[in-house]
């Protein structure tokens, strides 16, 4: 391959010119998001007949569609029909499972602004029906994931609304949450925590 300068001259490497040291980058977990890991985990649970848990589709109202070809449609305008509740739901050992997944780059606390009032209301409703409800919190900078029961999240939410902290401190997450170590199959084994707490 010929490399040229902007003026069009051909670049030639001088003899005995050493190639500068280039740092090697590691891309082992690049592009894997919390959602990817959870979806992979749920596929593993389903394929091995442990649980049936899926990501809820977000209800969308399509307003304007362009048909450039017969076989292709391009959505030009759409709106969310209603505020979504939580990300995932399903069933495990006869129990209704419902949870939300959130990430932060913070290292010392988890901001409560990551949650919405309608999600909190939904979690209260699930708990009132004895469902298993929780959140998976990922600290992306620390590469740590915690399982926090919804009852604890609701306590921190209510504390905030009565003028308290607007975040959950890391030591509170350590105290009330359950750290999940990333694995191979499944990636995020949250059923292990559910077994410990509910069965």
Domains counted in the coordinates: how many? 1
Beta-strand content bin: 25-35%
Overall form: extended
Provide the CATH top-level class.
Answer: Alpha Beta
Mean pLDDT: 86
Widest sheet, order of strands: 1-4-5-7-8-10
Total beta-strand segments? 10
Largest sheet: 6 strands, mixed
Structural class category: alpha+beta
**CATH topology value:** Trna Endonuclease, Chain: A, domain 1
Unreliable runs: 19-31
Helix content: 25-40%
CATH architecture identity: 3-Layer(aba) Sandwich
- The run of helices and strands is HEEEEEEHEEHEHEH
> What value does the Rg take, in angstroms?
24 Å
Distance between the termini: 64 Å
Number of discrete helical segments: 5
Please supply descriptive tags for the structure shown above.
Trna Endonuclease, Chain: A, domain 1, six-stranded mixed β-sheet, 27% helix, alpha+beta, two-stranded antiparallel sheet, 199 residues
Briefly, what is this?
This protein is α+β, with helices and mostly antiparallel strands and 199 residues long.
Structure in words:
By secondary structure, the protein is of the alpha+beta class. It has one domain (38-198): Trna Endonuclease, Chain: A, domain 1, CATH 3.40.1350.10. The protein has five helices and ten strands. It has helices at residues 34-47, 117-128, 150-161, 170-176, 190-198; strands at residues 52-55, 60-69, 72-80, 88-92, 95-104, 109-111, 132-139, 144-149, 167-169, 178-180. The chain has a six-stranded mixed β-sheet with strand order 1-4-5-7-8-10. Strands 2-3 form a two-stranded antiparallel ribbon. Strands 6-9 form a two-stranded antiparallel ribbon. Strand 7 and strand 8 (144-149) form a beta hairpin. The longest helix is centred in the first third of the chain and has 14 residues, at 34-47. It starts with 33 loop residues before the first helix and ends with a helix. The model is unreliable at 19-31 (pLDDT under 50).
């Amino acid at each position: 391959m010929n490399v040229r300068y902007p003026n069009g001259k051909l670049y030639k490497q001088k003899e005995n010119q050493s190639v500068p040291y280039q740092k090697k980058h590691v891309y082992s977990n690049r592009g894997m998001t919390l959602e990817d890991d959870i979806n992979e985990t749920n596929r593993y649970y389903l394929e091995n007949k442990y649980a049936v848990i899926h990501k809820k589709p977000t209800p969308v109202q399509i307003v304007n569609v362009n048909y450039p070809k017969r076989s292709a449609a391009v959505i030009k305008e759409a709106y969310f029909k209603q505020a979504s509740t939580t990300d995932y739901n399903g069933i495990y050992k006869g129990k209704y499972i419902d949870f939300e997944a959130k990430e932060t780059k913070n290292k010392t606390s988890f901001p409560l602004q990551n949650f919405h009032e309608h999600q909190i209301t939904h979690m209260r409703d699930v708990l009132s029906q004895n469902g298993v409800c929780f959140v998976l919190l990922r600290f992306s900078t620390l590469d740590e994931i915690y399982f926090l029961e919804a009852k604890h999240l609701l306590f921190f939410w209510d504390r905030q609304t009565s003028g308290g902290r607007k975040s959950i401190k890391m030591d509170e997450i350590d105290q009330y949450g359950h750290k999940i170590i990333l694995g191979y199959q499944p990636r995020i084994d949250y059923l292990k925590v559910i077994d410990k707490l509910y069965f």
